[in-house]
Design a protein that fits this description.
Two copies of one chain form a homodimer. The first copy, chain A, has 142 residues and is of the alpha+beta class. Helices cover 27% and strands 38% of the residues of chain A. Chain A is built from four helices and six strands; from the N terminus they run ααββαββββα. In chain A, strands 2-1-6-5-4-3 form a six-stranded mixed sheet, sandwiched between helices.
């Protein structure tokens, strides 16, 4: 059973990234996945195999174990899907040198996923990292 | 003479935002333009008339008078165009409380423009503001 490109992007964001169900990775991600552009992301510019992609999901989710994405909009043309999204997660473990704050952090971003047939072969992404940095740097109000 | 939505987005980024030719605004922008989402942008959430849009262009370009956008990718579906872009500009006047550094600053971002017919009625945008903040905060190496 194959999915449309939009369905695959939705599964990737909601099953893999939100729920941490990495068992779906081989259905969705090509043998080689390239992070074409993702400023501030530790994996920017790298090409990952499926095991590497799973590792990236695990390491990215570790500081925010309850993280979840909500899809705002999706546009498809040719072999690409552009998706805009919001994200939230509770900051439970250190990230970027900052100790766990146990605060709910919000972010938004936009990603263009590239396909070869039904497999996702890479992404070009911008996330609002300045917004996250400001939230993580805030003095707790309590 | 009307343009396709992709041609209109290219004119907006290259003529209006890169060259500062605001005479094209009435051809491209609706009477009411809404900044649906643009975290960190001073106009986020506002609805602007064409004069307000021109004012936004002028104020945004002032710190970086030679700014230019390059389009990476465009996807069109329905009445929307998603565009990914890179940007550069020389920091000639104060911005965000930081004095002019006269350095060339780089940024990238992604924008979804919404249309009603041939007019652009709003955008949803993410820019790599953390990358800009880091460049502006760097100690000059010279």
């Amino acid at each position: 059973m194959t999915c449309t490109p939009k369905e695959s992007v939705a599964r990737l964001l909601l099953d893999v990234w939100s729920l941490g169900d990495t068992s779906a990775v081989p259905d969705l991600i090509a043998e080689r996945f390239t992070i074409f552009h993702d400023p501030g992301d530790p994996w920017e510019g790298q090409a990952l195999d499926q095991a590497g992609y799973v590792q990236r999901v695990r390491e990215s989710r570790a500081p925010f174990p309850d993280q979840s994405f909500a899809i705002c909009d999706m546009l498809e043309e040719g072999e690409k899907v552009a998706v805009t999204w919001t994200w939230k997660g509770t900051h439970r473990r250190p990230v970027a040198g900052l100790p766990a704050s146990n605060r709910l952090i919000h972010m938004s971003g936009a990603t263009v996923y590239s396909f070869a047939g039904v497999a996702i072969i890479g992404h070009w992404q911008i996330s609002d990292r300045l917004g996250v940095f400001r939230q993580l740097s805030e003095t707790p109000s309590g």
